[in-house]
Amino acid sequence: MSFAVKASSITKQFGQITALSDVSFSIKPGEIYGLIGPNGAGKTTTLRIVCTLIKPSSGTITIFDQDVVKQPEKIRQNISYLPEESGAYPNLTGWEYLQFMAKLQSKSGVDVKEIVNEAAKICGLGDRLKDKAKTYSKGMKRRLLVARALMTRPQLAVLDEPASGLDIMHAYHIREIIKRYVKEHGVTVLLSSHNMLEVEYLCDRVALINKGKLVLEGGPKELKVRYEGQNLEEVFMKVIGYA
Hints:
alpha/beta
């Protein structure tokens, strides 16, 4: 079987600090896969390795059968990455930002106008796209950025804490954007979150990471049944020995 992402025994060290230790997981094409765990668990480090931003100290990761270390340029052509702390240019309108990013990200011969219209539909900001990004709330900015990450229909979209710090309405909208877009277009999504209830609703499968180690992997329903938990928070606490 061909996987969208296949990680085998990934270890990452920063000096004397081991951020990841022997992490292995696989993601199927068209799947929403969540990395969950507390802050500092190693989620963002994993995403950065997948996106070819940093190299693993040992182990391998392939993205649609291409190696992140040996073929980074090819991989970057087919993925998009939304870091947790990314932002839009404050003095550009939403439309101008999407047009700029579409021209920057799109392959030659692609209709930029069509991509921007797609992004406008994804984010659902309507006439507010005519306003400068510095006038947007945090939730509106995040909706704009998620649209930017999805508008080119990448093979793999990597989203780091896509709804972190948002109010209920904007967080709900972000989750619905992701779920609907995957269903309609077959994009594969790898996302991280420390909000396990959110991931439980959104993801087909999850990997629980704690202190740089992958401690559990499976579907949310499967894991709740196996560990007799009401939700993934309970499952996680039981697995790490706190419940």
